[in-house]
Amino acid sequence: VKINQYSFYFLNLKSFKLINSIINSFNLFLVPGQPAGLTAKVLDSHRIQLTWDKPLHSYNIIGYSIHFNASTGSTRELTLTIPVEKHIIDGLIPDTFYSFRVAARSARGTGAFCTDITVKTHPNVPTISPKIIVLRALSSQSLFIRWKMPLLDYRSGKIRSYLIRWRPVLAKNETDQHKIWQSDEDDEELLSGKGEKKEKRWLEMIQDASLDNSAIIRGLNPYTIYEVSVAAGTEMGYGIGSEPEQVQTEEDGWYCVICMHAFDNLKSLII
User: Locate the Fibronectin type-III domain: which residues (predicted)?
Assistant: First the structure.
């Protein structure tokens, strides 16, 4: 007996064989229909949120099955044991295409899957930092820095810019003991009880990755030791900074004149 879905029939039953055939046909209609309106929202490089609507005929739904394929060739299927129309898929691979489809489940079985939807996870932030290969003083107020681009995993995305950071220190390697130079304003805050002793804040500049992998840091103090670090950035943000390197700016011209004058005075006293 051929029966059309969602139609009413008035039957004159004459045998048990006919009754069993009709019951089996109606059991097929107790399987849920297709979910509708499937959408996928990329949350970050490892998570995608799926939302969908209940099937038009959603009687006795007990959960859903989510099937998805990755452009890497892997395939997975998840089973939701409660009838919720939202789920976050995590543990995904960065910068990878995923295709999703959803089917409703009832006590009678699993219905048809809805139409696939495909999205791509975000690339990851760089997990490897650039390497500083040159750091030297150009003058009493400027430094020259050159770095080597990190070798990134292809899923980290394209480097778009570099973040260059610097701050003054008391002496070489003293940042290991957290002895960071502080300004007079910082000292006043400590004496007044308004502030806590913290490391000198980093100053920073951003350089486009399309330019040369070098930069000049300007506006520094004469005869001062600075530590400098560089981080690579993609459209998702900046990765870890390089190990800080230290260098000292040159002496100011006036500083040299004062030193020479003091030396001459000391020499005359000795004579």
Answer: 34-124, 129-252
